[in-house]
Amino acid sequence: MKVEENRKPIFSAKNVTMDFKVARKGIFAKKSTIRALNDISFELYPGEALAIVGESGCGKSTICRIAMRFYKPTYGKMYFNNENIHELKGEKLKEYRQKSQMIFQDPFSSLNPLFNIYYHLKRPLQLYHPSDKETMYKKMDEYLTMVGLTPPKEQGEKFPHQLSGGQKQRAYIARVLAVGADVIFADEPTSMLDVSIRLGILNLLNKLKKEMKKSFIYITHDIATARYFADRIIVLYAGHMVEWGDVDKVICNPKHPYTKLLIAAAPDPEREEKIDLPVIRDKDTEIRQWTPESKGCPFRTRCPEAREICASKCPEAREVESGQFIRCIHG
Amino acid sequence: MGAVLEVENLYVDYITENGHIRAVDNVSFVIEEGKSLGLAGESGCGKSTIAYSLMRLHRPPALITSGKIIIDGKDILSLSENELQKFRWKKISMVFQSAMNCLNPVVTLEKQFFELYKIHGITKSRKEAKKLAEELLKIVGIPPERLKDYPHQLSGGMRQRAVIAMALALKPKLLILDEPTTALDTVVQRDILQKIYELKEKLNFSVLFITHDISLMMEFCDTVAIMYAGKIVEQAPSMKILKNPHHPYSYGLKNSFPSLQGEVKYMEGIPGSPLDLKCIPKGCRFQDRCFKATKICFEKEPEISLLDEGFFFCHNPL
Amino acid sequence: MVKKFSNSKIINFIKDSPKTVAGLILISIVLVLTLGAKLFTPYEPMQTFDGLWRAAPSAEHILGTTQAGKDVWTQTLYGGRVSILVGIFAGSIAVLLSLIVGITAGYFGGIVDNIITTIINIIMVIPQTVLLLIIASMVGRISPLAIGLIIGVTSWPWGARIYRAQTMSLRNREFIKSAETLGESKIRTLFVEIMPNMLSMITSGFIGTLIYAIMAQSFIEFIGFGDRMSVTWGQMLNNAQSTGALSSGVWWEILGPSAFLILFGSGLTLVNFSIDELSNPKLRAQRIMRKYYKEKKAQEKLLRKQAAVTTSNKGGIN
């Protein structure tokens, strides 16, 4: 089993809820509130990868942005080594910035086009691990080799537009390593890359996870790669955690209707005949917006197993099997 | 059952100040009536160039240097602008990647359909156009009262459905789908593709489906053609390519999609990155990334090897 | 290490683009003539030639003399210095102000942005010419430098809006977010990461403002609010106009300053177009396609000529 006892989580979220005020039509209409995240709690241990899977609008990117301190959660807290990240100041804040980094979705704009790769690696070293020029270049070459950009002296001098999409993403990962991050938030790191090089990047992240004990939060809409790379998984719907736990258990034996829908919708060429998606089509067939006043289970309008009670009471989290949790009254 | 689309020896170049870049190199394929062909490949393989060239929508610096594109018996490369305009949308129409690129953001759906019908001479009456549009929307699964909305008031999936409805408005013989669902979620994607499949059976049109998502394509297309660096490297019925790929690139692509069933094994993908068309090597274009490359692959381009329902180009097939 | 353009790229660009060359030539001519005025004329600008009032052009006075008996050519050359310098002065102030204001508003957003935008909108409403007239009427005569200062301080809102928009769009690019998560200070991000990416826009903005400033300054002086005693292009035109030069047929007094204004303005505008091309690849693509078609035509012509020669050599067909 993958779970060890007496491990301390390196990063955790407790009951995080995030509301955004949105302007409505008309100048004099009151602003309405959208609840992007509702009661999110999870723990991330060193050397493991936690996947957060959901469709667009479910709030998975918002979790990242809160962790990077772009927003402050309306309720709830996020902890790094048991300290509230939104209350850090001074030295502790600098340490947090160093230890937690983010990989972006778009490799084409995550590097500044005017500077070469060495510059992108030099800045983090200068800010967090200052040393003399020779040591710095040695370290930079080490990182470039680690991510597979060889020969490092040649690749380091290149500018972003001279690298391919996959190489750009590798260069960015080298930068994250140069900072010395221990918790890495990867926000759809491969969705804009060519199909044949996606696995290369995921294998690299896997290597970092296993050999350097880095922790990852892997955000994606592709549930197959989540299974390939992650150890545990959270399925998000309309800002709610609907199913979470061991990745094999959740994917091979899903209990929540939404997880079942996601897996049925994923492309699978081995399937012989056309399948009917286990979902009810309502007028929109899209994710609904959740507000602080909304009641009941967020998935009820599309759930083929919905009952009357689902409209009034939001289900509590419960463990259906060892290591697998859902927020549903069925299953 | 005749062929709806025949592409013969198509060459498309991009004119740059440093020379010509051949984006599409001697591509030929055929789509029969009522069948669907999937064109798979990564960035730089030329599939989008082909899509735009088929409707002569390519813009400078792209230039069709030679070849024939025969749609429903007519070679469209020889048509004048006027004839081409009558041809487009009636015989062949296209669904682009992002619906917001097709829909006019400041005009309601109703008006867009009306203009569509007016320009192609179907009807000049708003009432009739509205009736026809409502029927179309019903077919794709959009409630008819949404006709009054502007594009930004619809969700992504609905916008794409509206675009598909517009593409099918004049009952074309061939529908080109250029990465129609890349910007959409998996559930919506599957919904839309299944809907297109149903419509294909009902209205009997052919489909050219262009995408980089091979596993999706295998589910929806009869035949699959895999492109690399401007050439088709293998073409075969989708089940055959899935179970028995001949070209190492097809094999590698198949192995780039982790599966949801069975054990989680280590997968390689394909080492290296897609070929930069500015420096095309001597011999087979796939040489740098191929695990079966031998000496001859670096010297001579492979010849065509015919199968009973397809073909491939490889010196050392699997 | 900031990227520098390689030398050959710039030289090739100049060779390919007649617009740039023409523009640079015009600018150089004017600059050389005005800055090196001593070499091109033996006289002083304020030197009066008794008895030679409104004299037509002759061997000693290429452009004749003014109403007050001064050599037009000399005044044009020396006056050019002041006009151009004041233009540069005003342009620099305007660009500097618009940059600082625009980038600050775009980058910091929130309440800072709101305040600055309100200020921009208010100042944009104030008509510049009216402001200048009011100040002039209060002060009497305004020296060229003061005119330059006023122009500089009132023309920045337009550029500020543009830089603000560009900064806002750059700000959401991931590499800026990446710098922020790295812990870079906001000021450093602003100057080292964002601003260099706007360089072509800043240069183009500077040249545009320069043209505007020179024209505006000349206009102010032309309508009579400049310093009577100064020698600038605008002042020369004012002198000519107020003494009825055109109606008396004294065209040479107007030709000097007008011609130089036109030449310099056109030269700057042409160079501005080329900078546009540098940053907009689509314009470049059009130019390349034109060149391609031209070469193709030339090649075909050559082939036809060769074919004609060979047939006539064969001595057969007529």
What does the model show?
- The complex is a heterotrimer of chains A (about 325), B (about 325) and C (about 325).
- Chain A is an alpha/beta fold and about 325 residues long.
- Chain A has helices at about 60-65, 90-100, 115-130, 135-145, 150-155, 165-180, 195-210, 225-230, 245-250, 255-265; strands at about 10-20, 30-45, 50-55, 75-80, 85, 100-105, 185, 215-220, 230-235, 240-245, 320, 325.
- In chain A, helix 4 crosses helix 6.
- Chain B has about 325 residues and is α/β, with parallel strands linked by helices.
- The two termini of chain B are about 35 Å apart.
- Chain B has two domains: about 5-80 and about 175-260 and about 265-275, Rossmann fold; about 105-170, no CATH class.
- Chain C is mainly α and about 325 residues long.
- Chain C has 14 helices and no strands.
- The interface of A and B includes residues 266 and 284 of A.
Key attributes of the depicted protein:
heterotrimer; A: 331 residues; alpha/beta; Rossmann fold; 8-stranded mixed β-sheet; 10 helices; 22% strand; C: 318 residues; mainly alpha; 75% helix; flat
CATH superfamily of chain A: P-loop containing nucleotide triphosphate hydrolases
Task: Give the H and E element order of chain B.
Answer: EEEHEEHEHHHEHEHEEHHEE
Could you give a short account of the major beta sheet of chain A?
A: 8 strands, mixed
| Outline of chain B | globular
Poorly predicted runs of 5 or more residues of chain B: none
Strand order of the largest sheet of chain B: 6-7-8-3-9-10-12-11
What structural class is derived from the secondary structure elements of chain A?
A: alpha/beta
CATH architecture annotation of the largest domain in chain B:
3-Layer(aba) Sandwich
Helical residue percent band of chain B: 25-40%
- Kindly report the greatest chain-chain contact and the residue count on each side: A-B, 42 and 45 residues
Q: In this structure, how is the largest beta sheet of chain B organized?
A: 8 strands, mixed
* Widest sheet, order of strands of chain A: 6-7-8-3-9-10-12-11
Taking pLDDT < 50 over at least 5 consecutive residues as the criterion, the unreliable ranges of chain A are: none
The number of domains of chain A is: 1
Helix/strand order of chain A: EEEHEEHEHHHHEHEHEEHHEE
What is the number of strand segments of chain B?
12
